[in-house]
Amino acid sequence: SVPSPLPPSVEEAYRRKCLQLKNRTNEVEDANDAARLRLARIKRQVEKLRIERAFLLEQLAKRTSTNVEDSEGSPSPPPTATTFDIPVEANANPRKPKDKPLRIKKGHRKSNAPADADAKQGATKEPASPTSESNSQAKGSRANGVSKASVEYKDPFELYCEEARPALEAKNKDDADVNIEEELTRAWEELPEAEKEEYQTKFDELKKSREEEEEDKAAAEAEAEAEAEAEAEAEAEAEAEAEAEAEAE
Fold it and tell me: Basic and acidic residues composition bias: which ranges (predicted)?
């Protein structure tokens, strides 16, 4: 049983579809390569920050050890009344400023939270500008109504059904015997090739924009993670330096 040959129009449609799928595959591969390059660049930056942190900690440990050796090797002053009173004041006074900044810094962070909350409340109480109102309305409309780019269509037929379904349901709302799915399928099959090509183009554009949004989101998350790790390492280095200076004195 040899299958009957396809009509030339159907065969040409299949050929165009294959070419479109091949081009789309190449575009996806290029986007994946670009995302891999961005991820590798971010990993190199993180590795560089780790190496710098290890080097700084090593230098800090060396300086701390040399300061301790110098303090152990220096002769102690004679225990006279004047020299006895001076070290007590010198040791008591400098340590308070060393301890105070840390305490003030921690307390300052805690005290900023209510101030920031009050500032945010005050900002919300202020009358909003027309620009902010328009932005909020746009955000609300995007939140209430799902945009086409956020909906994942499997093929152009689903996109066509999404657009044609409301009108078809409104047209046949009084006829309970009408099968909407069959009507949509028949309407799609009877649709001219030019209009099908338009839906194919829309589908490709929506799919491309959705993939670009996912790539941008992944890159932004990776960059935010790298920045957070760098900030944590910088804070750890600053605390280690402060402790080393306090111990050296």
Answer: 188-211
